[in-house]
Amino acid sequence: MDLLLQQIINALSLGGIYAMLALGLAIVFSIVRLINFAHGEIMTFGGYGIFLAMAFGFPPLAALTVGIGAALMMALAMERAAFRAMRGADVVSLLITSFAVSEILKVLFQNGISARPVPISFPASWSGTYQLAGMNIGVAPTVSILVTLTSLSLLTLVLRRTSIGMAMRAAAEDFEMLRMLGVRANRVVAVSFAVSGLLAGVAAVIWTAQRGSVDPVMGFFPVLKAFIATVLGGLGSLSGAVAGGFVVGLLEVLTQAFLPDGVSPYRDAIVLGAVIAILLVRPDGLLPAGDGSRS
Amino acid sequence: METALDIKSLDVRYGPVRAVRGIDLMVPMAGITALLGANGAGKTSTVMAITGVVPVTSGTVSIFGRDMTAAAPDAIIRAGVAISPEGRRIFASLTVEENLILAGSAAGAPETAAALRVSLMERFPILGERRRQLAGLLSGGEQQMLAVARALMSEPRLLLMDEPSLGLAPQMVDAVFAIIEELRNEGISILLVEQNAALALEVADHAVVLANGEVAAAGAPANLTGEDILKSAYLAA
Amino acid sequence: MKTKSILMASAIAALAGTAPADEYIIGVMSAQSGYLAPYDGPAYAGFQFCIDEMNANGGLNGTTPVKLIVKDTRSDIAMGVQVVQEMIDDGAEFIVSSADADPTIAAAQITAADMIPTMTFAGTAPVLTQVGPHVFGSYPADNQQAAVLAVYAREQGFENVWLVKSPDSAYTLGGPEYFGTAFSTLGGNVVGESNYSLNQPDFSAIVTTIQGAETAPDLIVTWAWEPDFPAFIRALRGAGLDTQVMGGDVLDTPTVRGLGDVVSGVIHTSGGYPDEGSAYADFVDRFKAATGTEPDNNYYVNGCDIAHMIEQAVAAAGTTDPAAVSEAMAGLENGQAVMSNFTFAGTDRMPLRDVVVARISASGEKEFILRQPADLAILPAP
């Protein structure tokens, strides 16, 4: 029972990271129809931001802020330099552009910083445990869950209560109509990239704090999972992306925890199989994006 | 005489497809111009070109005497244009009130926007009653009311109404047309795109018939009614 | 096609007019990007440094100048096979292959036809030499490392080990398994095992499983590398488990030592240790002086040792004929090299070399514990 509870905490912690990445992907996709393959590099850049800040002697918390800021700047720069010129292009052209951006950044990280992982050393107090109802619970997964929930609630608040949030929800549904109301397209698109960058930055912070190193392909694997999460949740659906992220995290942790050793090499196949099974029953995803996909 | 909207030799192309071929179109101040024609005649393309979301290939679009041919949609909206588009395109996942707030935030000042919202909800009581509901849950007629109210949030002087009666029950159609006349009487110029030609011609001061992207006929409704050209335009598709 | 390439190569050599007839051509697979780049890069730098030193003195044994052909594989096996073929077409008489078992095995299948000796930069999985009698390891093999580490662990009184391994590579799977075998032979118990995938996002589930084990382990052994090892150790310490962790030579990197408190006390094997006054320490100084780079891991010096192994094999063969060099290499006994001496004779062409056991100190320094060769009596079979 204890074991199950702890594994559920692990699942929430991992799922939360996927959820933030998936939400970042979904926000951008729903507005500009861009499946941003370079989202992982935004996260990686955030990780390097933390590394460099610590190398320059910043205290850990300040370094984390630098990391989030770096991811934000990278997302905005990407939009301005690569994707603005491609606005309105078809989904495939946009996808290929984002592949190119991703590859270029990976090579830059590798040649400009290091092909090897670089270490990030956080204080020992960040990796302790505490007792709750007789269970040993890790500080790191707890903080990770709290940070994820805080970020998601703040974002929900912004989306629900502010006019730019309303504009982003509306843009996700029908961007052209929003423009016909007089809303400036560039502003909404830039804000959507900024939000996705912020979320990737927060994910990078939790990720590096838990993993202790940054390498040029750090963002690739979690973002791959986040892609699966967005499809599972319903491509373009914001709440679907969050739900998908948690489901993928849960599946991964539970298969790791409870599958017999002999089957474990097939873990990814089993997780993906479960995702396909869900999509067979609900082809539009868990929480589909409604009819907002009018082009 | 100053006109609300003056279009000269407008061409709109989507790649190789020439949807609008050199049309002239005019909406007088505080008047209603009906834009008629079959499906695919180029009506909606014309409207979208006026709002700026579809680029003008050639020709000019003047709004209240200013050349707005190449302007961005936000500049055109600020110049006093608003649209109630074909298919209504209300934001289904936002509440009724949020649809209105959003339209107000883009165009007007926040204080006047709040007051305007209150007055619009009095004008369309059903929207006031349902202001906290998701717009997607409204009936077709209610969604049309919301689309009109949303357009009015920017206090337009030129209103583009694309197929406002499409898919509505007869009483709702009457209600919509009553509002159109009311707005005209308040001094708003209106470009009314309609498939229901008979209804449109009843309220219009001026009518233009499009067929295959070209002007097939134009003039006062009285001169158009009964003309064969009107019939042929509708049967062309 | 092949003849044509050779003709081309000869034509180019003739035109260049500088290649002496007795030049020895060595082809080098070196991944400049991808997962092997962190190992191939340093290994190649060390190899080239020592080849250059030899060439400055007339070449191998002072008589046979070496010409290197270096090609990037991007850590891609198919690409590796292609570049090996190209290098053979260009006249390579010896192939130095990437630092892992899988690309080496692929390369060795190409070199088998002409018995061209093929030596891995740092692949340590003992299975890699089973492709044929022309394939060689250079670094102390996983089973040797595991055997030495198991002896040390038992001497320290550890009883119950938990193995964390990944079936995704021969290294990450083999190391812990060899350790388990040797540890059991010495009277210890394997109380549990966990499998992970390379680049696995999250290790908390494995850590929770270890926490919930029926018999709590007093030792965890893994051959995980970066970034998996940092992720695992952070998750482990983050869950409040202070169980002793031991691992393979892949932990001997500045990245791992830079992880801070979580790696304090971690014990790992290593191919060598630059004791003061040793040949290794001298190599470090020369390399640093010449290149400005600190050779901060053993792949540099092992690259240099490969140059020495080739030199001694060519001397023993008395010819540069590939098959003869292969045979001579396999017969070398107590050969002299910089990191440690080596013996191929009597082995499966994975050289018997000293294994170092080291500890990461609280301040992130590498502390020497012991150096000894594997005890052949308990050496797990590949």
Structural summary, described in words:
The complex is a heterotrimer of chains A (295), B (237) and C (382). Chain A is mainly alpha-helical and 295 residues long. Chain A has one domain. Helices cover 72% and strands 4% of the residues of chain A. Chain A has helices spanning 2-32, 39-55, 60-83, 91-112, 139-161, 163-180, 185-211, 220-233, 238-258, 267-281; strands at 118-119, 129-132, 135-138, 213-214. In chain A, the strands form 2 sheets. Chain A has a two-stranded antiparallel ribbon with strand order 1-4. The longest helix of chain A has 31 residues, at 2-32. In chain B, a hairpin with a 2-residue loop joins strand 9 and strand 10. Chain B has one domain (3-90, 156-236): P-loop containing nucleotide triphosphate hydrolases (Rossmann fold, 3-Layer(aba) Sandwich). Helix content of chain B is 40%, strand content 27%. The termini of chain B are far apart. With 382 residues, chain C is of the alpha/beta class. Chain C has 2 domains: 2-140 and 276-351, Response regulator (Rossmann fold), CATH 3.40.50.2300; 142-270 and 356-372, Response regulator (Rossmann fold). Helix content of chain C is 40%, strand content 16%. Chain C is built from 12 helices and 12 strands. Chain C has helices spanning 2-16, 37-56, 77-89, 101-111, 142-155, 170-185, 204-211, 228-238, 254-257, 279-291, 298-317, 322-330; strands spanning 24-30, 66-72, 94-97, 118-120, 135-136, 160-165, 189-195, 219-222, 244-247, 267-270, 355-360, 366-372. In chain C, the strands form 2 sheets. Chain C has a 7-stranded mixed beta sheet, with helices on both faces. In chain C, strands 2-1-3-4-5 form a 5-stranded parallel beta sheet, with helices on both faces. In chain C, helix 6 (170-185) links the parallel strand 6 (160-165) and strand 7 (189-195). In chain C, helix 2 (37-56) packs across helix 11 (298-317) and helix 3 packs parallel to helix 4 (101-111). The longest helix of chain C is centred in the N-terminal third of the chain and has 20 residues, at 37-56. Chain C starts with a helix and ends in a 10-residue tail after the last strand. Chains A and C meet through helix 1, strand 1, helix 5, helix 8 and helix 9 of A and helix 2, strand 7, helix 7, helix 8 and helix 9 of C.
